Amino acid sequence: MSASAPYPEFWVRKLRSVFVMFDHDLDGIVRKKDFVDFCIARAKCLLKQERMQTFEDQIHNAWDYFWAGPEKKVNVTLGDYIYNHARTFREPVFQREQRKWFSVYFDTIADKNGDGIVTRKEYEEFLGLVGVHPLSVPPSFEALDTDGDGQISKEEFANAAVGFFCCTADTPAKLFWGPFLA
Asked: Where exactly are the transmembrane stretches of this chain (predicted)?
């Protein structure tokens, strides 16, 4: 997909949903400080101290690579966010970076007890880090648990995360970040 081609409507809808999760004042801008501070404040209630530094590093890296884009913006509009994630279609390395980032996130943040799987409770806490209400978790969890074994493996987690950002079709990965907000 070229930069000048229109982006698929469903894909834009998914990205808009994530964007509004962090546009708390609904002014059409997500600021780095707001994104980072919000996630870190929520994490302090949900993560043990030994995981906090890893989480903080991951959140800063997520902003720098996925939100701010090559221009390293500190204020991002929805258009900027969509354009930055459209690198998924233009730069093959972007998908690999997403998979790598979410694999690290799985190991260090989502899989809280380190047993190689994410339970419904762990997934609820993971989504809680970005402000998703616990009642929204069951349908998301079930969508990601593709083999129906009642837990999410690292592969299921990473596939759904990358699928959310990279797939233009309506797939279960659409629920990776919880229900659509916009």
From this structure: none
